[in-house]
Amino acid sequence: MKAHLEAKGYTIGNIFDTMGGNITGIQLNAESPRRLLVQFTPSKETSFIKVVGECTLDPAARKKTT
Length: 66
What we know:
The chain has one helix at about 1-5, and strands spanning about 10-15, 25-30, 35-40, 45-50. A hairpin with a 4-residue loop joins strand 3 and strand 4. It has one helix and four strands, in the order H-E-E-E-E. Strands 1-2-3-4 form a four-stranded antiparallel sheet. With about 70 residues, it is mainly beta.
């Protein structure tokens, strides 16, 4: 996943190779060229991708959407 994101122009942030406790997994944090934040967490029990970004790329937008 790291190589895939880097190839797409993402900046790789923190990589955690252990999630602590009884959880065996990795967490990779990355940011896209458009400042979209991605958190990829695969593990034995479950895997997930969390994506955080703005609803619009227009800086003139005054009204926030939900």
